[in-house]
Structure formats: C-alpha cells, structure tokens
Amino acid sequence: MGTKKTIPKVKKPEREGNTIPKPKEFNSHNNGIKFSFEALEQTEYFSLDGTCPNWSQDLFEMLKDVSGHTVTDMVSGEYRRKYRVHNHEGASSPSKLPDGVDLKDIYQIRISTSKGGIHGVFNENIFYVIWLDPLHNMYPFEHYGGLRKTKPASTCCKDRDEEILLLKEELKKAEENAKIWEELATGTSQ
Length: 190
Hints:
This protein is α+β, with helices and mostly antiparallel strands and 190 residues long.
C-alpha cells in the first residue's frame, strides 16, 4: 500500500502585517483632471478605427500628463498651448451632439500635432470624453485629408484571418499544381 499524500501547508510569512508588496510611490493630484468615458460615443466620424499603431500609446501618455494638471492650467494656463485646449464655439460638428450638450461646452484636448485629439466637456475637474478624433474631423482641414468617415469596426485579427484564408487558397492551388506536375512526370496523367 502506498503512502498517503498530503497537500503541503502554506508557510507563514516571516514578517508580520500585509504580505502584498506596496506599489511604487507616485504623486497623486487630487485636484488634477480625471477622465470619464461614460459619455463616449462612436459615430461615423469619431471612432478609434483608422488609427496608427502608436495612437493609443500617445493617447495614454497625454491622459497621464493632463491628469497632473488642473482645469485652469489646461483652459487658460501654460498647458493650453501644448494641448491646444479650446472649446468648439463657432465650429460645425459632423456628428449629432449628445442630448443636453452645446457645441460651446465641448472642448478639445490635442493628443499630438498629427494624431488628432479628444472632445468632451469639463464638469469640475472631470473631463467627460464624448468623441475620439484621430482623423481631425472636428476641423476637417484638407491638410489632414478633409472630412473622412472612420473605417467600420473590425477586430485586430481580421487582417490576419483574411491573410490565412488567402494562404490556404494558395496552398490548395499549389497542391493541385504539384499533383498535376507529378502525374506528368510519372506519366500517370489521364
């Protein structure tokens, strides 16, 4: 008869208190801008589709930097120019505005010179993001390609899956050709 196996007991930590490591310390800005995406809308002109591979990284770097500043810093202070923060009074939106929101209340925060920006409204120190605008569609200058509809939503794997199907078709044709050439070479063709 074999020996009975037991589940080993977890060793108690040698130190007392919390065993979860503390995260790296960082400066928290209680009065800095916080971002909310609960008002985010995707329209035919404002969406993530059509962005370059680095767009998301640049967006998150901007969000992180802006989070360390106050609304006053962004709207009328030194960061206004860096992020081209301004409202859209006098602009013409290509998409229907959300209910209860006026164009004069919507602000833009630029991601970078060539990556467009985000549009939303400030409520105290919270910026409610309404639209993501990588194609510069709020101000569709010809320099950026004019007003363009975003591409239909797709998965990140769509291109890969389409390429796999094409490669399978090519393989099938190559196998058929190889069979024909083998039959010709061996004289077994009909």
